[in-house]
Write a structure and sequence with these properties.
The protein is α+β, with helices and mostly antiparallel strands. The protein folds into two domains: 3-199 and 370-459, Aminopeptidase (3-Layer(aba) Sandwich), CATH 3.40.630; 201-255 and 301-368, Alpha-Beta Plaits. It is built from 14 helices and 18 strands. The protein has helices at 3-28, 40-56, 125-142, 162-170, 172-175, 218-221, 228-237, 260-267, 273-279, 293-298, 339-352, 378-391, 405-414, 440-459, and strands at 60-64, 71-76, 84-90, 110-112, 115-117, 148-154, 179-182, 194-199, 201-210, 216-217, 302-310, 320-321, 324-333, 359-368, 371-372, 396-400, 418-423, 437-439. The strands form four sheets. Strands 1, 2, 3, 6, 7, 8, 15, 16 and 17 form a nine-stranded mixed sheet that branches. The protein has a four-stranded antiparallel sheet with strand order 11-13-9-14. Strands 4-5-18 form a three-stranded antiparallel sheet. A hairpin with a 2-residue loop joins strand 4 and strand 5. It is globular and about 80 Å long. The two termini are 13 Å apart.
Length: 460
Amino acid sequence: MGISGHAVFFEDIDRSLDRYMQELCEFLRIPGVSAYSDSGDAMVRSAEWLLDKLRALGFSGELHGTEGWPIVLARHEYDESAPKLLIYGHYDVQPEVPLEEWSTPPFEPAFRDGAVFARGANDDKGQLYTYVKALETYKRATGSIPLNVIFLVEGEEEIGSKNLMRFLAENKERLRSDVFFVSDSSMLSKDIPAITYGFRGIVSFEIELQTMSHDLHSGLFGGIGMNAAMVLTNLLAKMVDSDGRIAVPGFYDDVRPIGERERNLMAQVPYDERAVAESLHMPSLAGERGYEAFERKSARPALDINGMWSGFTGEGSKTVIPAKAYAKISSRLVPDQRPEAIFERFEDFIAANLPAGAKAYVRWQFGAMPVVTNVDDPNIRLAAEAIEEGFGMAPVFIRSGGTIHIISEIKESLKIPSMLILGWGRPENRSHSPNERFYVDDFRKAARSLCVLFEKLAKQ
């Protein structure tokens, strides 16, 4: 099937696009927030909704119960000699707060400015659903799906994928495939598609710091009470030096340097630092000296305070000296850093920098290994050709600064030779933030690209 043949796919997608988007809205209306313990009904409804759509395409499948939220496993078997594809995604979404910053309710999808706005539109329901609809178009246009396809969709990606890790370990043979697909990342910009060949890892932890038995009156004890909020902020400030480097001893010991070839690839990416800074209302981009911004955001480690609280935070004034202070911390990691080892280095740093009498409890939250795939993989080249046809522009090759927990686990556990990480969302789509969105034309172009890629893979 040549260029003219691919027009059959493109015309079908254009005819079906309104229906595809209305179906996506049904999916988005289900408020499946995995972090909420009372989300059980919505989580099951989300999983069942997706499984029903796959069954309608001729897939066989079931929900697998876990100690948390269910896993969707569905498969289409064509022929043993045909390529086997494993498509991963997640149906859970981030909490919708703060509600007051949404222009429209987060679970009532609304179309404006060419995009659908809703929690989960970009991360990951919209991106995941491009695969379902691309396969529907492919089947309608050709009469069959000449590929072996497995959908593995979880409900805990936003909270660490713990139960999926266990499921992978117990079902390796059932999931073995030739090509792994995931679309839970971003294009380079609204105009430039991208293939992601690497992700940073992560370690996340929480600090509880205590200096006294209870809060004190700042008039009676100001000047002699040990203020937990001040101790914690001083401690956190010591973690990064004036050059933007993380000052925790041993933190960089295992960092794999960026190779010359990768730096050349990154140098080819059209990344306008000034425009990005202006879009964020920043005078300039922050970070580690000695590296370009695109390197800092994708291929160098990073440390962030995700949240802090202490003392009185309500309306008005309460003049207290807080006895406890808390912070949530995450550090993005690069090859060959290991989350457990980095966590231990932070534990040691915190213990070494506490003033006498203060106590700190450092609690592990979650971690994930960084991963880099082979950019010379022939299937990556096929994907690049398909995306160029679907989007009308060749993709750039990038490393993402984000983390998808399951990618490193799948790479290590299942030994799948090809990994295609294809982000269809724009960087400005506000994943995890109010007014999350997914552009209709990007959905359309993604489905086009996937149809072409499926055709290329089937011909192999």
